[in-house]
């Protein structure tokens, strides 16, 4: 058996990301689920640009602020305490608008923990 207590603030942010990403799942050695904590300021994207996954189910649990998520059909908002879920094959782009009054802090959970993200080009 193995247990972990991890403070995301103790982890180095992932380089080359728009928002601050702390890879908690990697630090814990998780193999079946991706677990990341994001802090994004106005104008930043969480976590990737517009994308979709082949297999991975993805959920964003909003801890503080409001997360905006663009999809081909509409824009969703998830406020503190709410969860946005994207099923495999569902294009989405999570972000904080540039004109927002504050940033967002969210936990992103993806399973299985596969690198299957593909860029999505929105029409227009």
From TrEMBL:
The keyword Metal-binding applies. Residues 37-99 form the Cupin type-2 domain. InterPro entries: Cupin_2, GPI/OXD, RmlC-like_jellyroll, RmlC_Cupin_sf. Residues 1-20 are annotated as: Disordered. GO terms for molecular function: metal ion binding. Keywords: Metal-binding. Pfam families: Cupin_2. The keyword Metal-binding applies. It comes from the Archaea. This is Cupin type-2 domain-containing protein. It comes from Halococcus hamelinensis 100A6.
């Amino acid at each position: 058996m193995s247990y972990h207590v991890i403070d995301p603030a103790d982890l180095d942010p992932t380089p080359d990301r728009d928002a601050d990403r702390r890879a908690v799942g990697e630090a814990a050695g998780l193999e079946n689920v991706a677990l990341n904590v994001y802090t994004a300021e106005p104008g930043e994207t969480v976590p990737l640009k517009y994308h979709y996954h082949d297999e991975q189910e993805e959920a964003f649990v909003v801890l503080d602020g409001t997360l905006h998520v663009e999809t081909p059909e509409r824009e969703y908002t998830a406020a503190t305490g709410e969860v946005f879920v994207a099923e495999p094959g569902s294009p989405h782009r999570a972000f904080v608008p540039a004109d927002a009054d504050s940033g967002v802090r969210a936990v992103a959970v993806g399973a299985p923990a596969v690198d299957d993200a593909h860029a999505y080009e929105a029409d227009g």
